[in-house]
Amino acid sequence: MAEDQREQVEMANRASETEPARDGKQSFTRPVSLVTWTLATFDTTLFVLLGVLAVHASGDLADLLAGLNTLVGVAVFCYLWALFVLAVRWVHRRVPLDSAGVRTLVLHGTAAGSVAGVTFLLGLLAVALVSTLQSGGVRLQSVLLVLLIGVGVASVVGGVVGLLASLLDIAVYGLAGTLLPELGSERVTDPRRQ
Amino acid sequence: MAALPIRTLHVLAMAALVGGTTGLWYSYRSGTIATLAPARQFEWLFWGGVGVLVVTGVGNLGALGPPGPGTDWGRTLLVKLAVVVVLVGGSVVRTLLLARIGDRVNTLDDLPPALRRTLSQAYGATAAVLLGIVVLAEVLAHG
């Protein structure tokens, strides 16, 4: 049993050697690595939490949430979460987090954020358009105008979010590295066998 | 109609996180677990749980209609949100620390005592912050 587990881990390790990023150990068995899943969820939850914190501090939270259907809110959050996972995975597959320069990582993060921002907007617009079409006619010029302005704004906002998120990711990854204990020559002991 | 399932999911996610982190803290402290594999598996669940907690937490707020930050309830909520930000920030460092340890040692090998101590302290701190959030949630729910 233990041999089987060891063999599986070794197979995963061998597969990860072809990945550009060192955190790709799980890539053989999972579509995303633990580091990607962690950083993407961290970025998403922090983005939402800071937004809620800011709106609550300004006293407008009740009004904002009153106009939002719970299931729609859950769906939007899941959509945002999935986009963050895809964006972080895209960056990590191209740039190794521990050896690439900050500039390269930030540029990739900004680009991924920009694309994710536009995709987020297009998804919301597609849903809004379907419900508008069902309720009545819609003018093509209005849709194009909203698309044009919206895509520009979404790419800038997404780029800024991507830039900040990648800076934060680099900072926490570096901090984790400084907290790694020295293994030294300390003997490995197992209390169960003592 | 969605309020009860959302609230139930919120409580279940919190129970999973408190139970998991407390179990790992005790296991690494006592030496019951000496490998990295259980912690690595738990981290996947942990971050899924954090996502569920945040989305259901906002859903709960929508159902409650929170008063402004000038009230006692509003101030407590402000503190709770700040502590959740601290939890998320601290946890990402813990998980990345774990991932970086995994780059240096085999996940199925027995960990050196220094690493076990570090993991025990990290999970202990996480469990303490989570319990603090539970207390703040109790205050918000019952005053």
From TrEMBL, chain A:
* Keywords for the protein's UniProt record, in alphabetical order: Membrane, Transmembrane, Transmembrane helix
Q: Which Pfam families match?
A: DUF7965 (PF25913)
Coiled coil regions, renumbered to chain: none
Renumbered to this chain, region (Disordered) spans: 1-25
Record bears the keyword Membrane: yes
Indicate the transmembrane segments per the record.
34-55, 67-91, 111-131, 143-176
- Compositional bias per record (Basic and acidic residues), positions renumbered to this chain: 16-25
Q: What is this protein called?
A: DUF7965 domain-containing protein
Automatic annotation (TrEMBL), chain B:
Q: Which organism is it from?
A: Haloarcula rubripromontorii
Q: Where is the Copper resistance protein D domain?
A: 39-139
User: Cellular component GO terms, alphabetically?
Assistant: membrane
InterPro entries in the record = Cu-R_CopD_dom
Q: What is this protein called?
A: Copper resistance protein D domain-containing protein
Kindly state which keywords UniProt assigns to this record, in alphabetical order.
Membrane, Transmembrane, Transmembrane helix
Pfam families per record? CopD (PF05425)
Q: Which regions span the lipid bilayer?
A: 9-28, 44-65, 77-102, 122-141
